[in-house]
């Protein structure tokens, strides 16, 4: 996941106790991965009892992504925004999907819809792409109201998107808000931030 690790690493040099330091972020990401894996394994056994684990893991991923992206913007602006996203997120996905396209002879229309994020095989890719687009244009043209714009689209997603995507409508936004209030965050414990990510 692209979460602005370069900023976080740089920030650690000045504040090793920062609650969302690189080390703590790695821990949160590990917890999120574990939760998603647990949910998928339980689903394979035909039970939905652990389904909330997957949603919680995704919420943590999105929260950290929104936070890291906004922190990176503070340092670098929008310079190289899409190049970084393409190289770190979408190029690996494109390569994976192209391999499937060649092996399984998927029709070209489905392939193009998939890699464009319109109708992806893995919903998270299309979902995070939506947030990247919304974030980019809100920051570029209306930076003063970017959080309100993100909130507006989050509300729309609740009603327009299916299932878990609707449930995660505010997770990315919460990460951005956390970044905008970083001075307050510095005074909070890792447990508090973890609770915020779960609630989001």
What does this structure look like?
With 200 residues, the protein is mainly α. 76% of the residues lie in helices and 0% in strands. The protein contains eleven helices and no strands. The chain is globular and about 50 Å long. About 2% of the residues have low confidence.
List keywords for this structure.
mainly alpha; globular; 200 residues
* Main sheet summary: none
Helix content: over 70%
Order of helices and strands: HHHHHHHHHHH
- Report how far the terminal alpha carbons are from each other: 18 Å
- What do the pLDDT scores average to? 81
Structural class: mainly alpha
Radius of gyration: 17 Å
Strand content: under 5%
Judging from the principal axes of the Cα atoms, what is the shape?
globular
Number of DSSP-assigned strands: 0
Parts with pLDDT < 50 across at least 5 consecutive residues: 10-14
How many helical elements?
11
Secondary-structure blueprint:
Blueprint: H1 5-12, H2 22-44, H3 51-76, H4 81-104, H5 108-115, H6 123-141, H7 146-160, H8 163-167, H9 171-180, H10 182-185, H11 190-199
Helix pairs in contact: 1-3, 2-3, 3-9, 3-11, 4-5, 6-7
């Amino acid at each position: 996941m692209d979460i602005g690790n370069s900023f976080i690493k740089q920030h650690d040099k000045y504040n090793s106790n920062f609650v969302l330091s690189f080390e703590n972020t790695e821990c949160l990401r590990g917890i999120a991965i574990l939760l998603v894996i647990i949910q998928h394994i339980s689903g394979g056994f035909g039970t939905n009892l652990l389904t909330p684990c997957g949603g919680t893991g995704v919420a943590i991923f999105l929260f950290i992504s929104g936070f890291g992206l906004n922190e990176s913007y503070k340092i670098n602006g929008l310079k190289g925004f899409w190049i970084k996203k393409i190289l770190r997120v979408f190029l690996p996905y494109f390569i994976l999907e192209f391999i499937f396209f060649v092996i399984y002879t998927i029709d070209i229309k489905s392939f193009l819809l998939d890699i464009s994020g319109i109708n992806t095989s893995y919903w998270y890719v299309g979902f995070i792409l939506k947030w990247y687009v919304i974030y980019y244009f809100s920051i570029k043209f209306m930076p003063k109201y970017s959080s309100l714009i993100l909130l507006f689209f989050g509300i729309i997603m609740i009603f327009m998107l299916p299932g878990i995507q609707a449930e995660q409508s505010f997770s990315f936004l919460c990460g951005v808000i956390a970044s905008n209030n970083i001075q307050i965050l510095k005074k909070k414990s890792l447990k508090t931030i973890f609770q915020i990510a779960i609630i989001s």
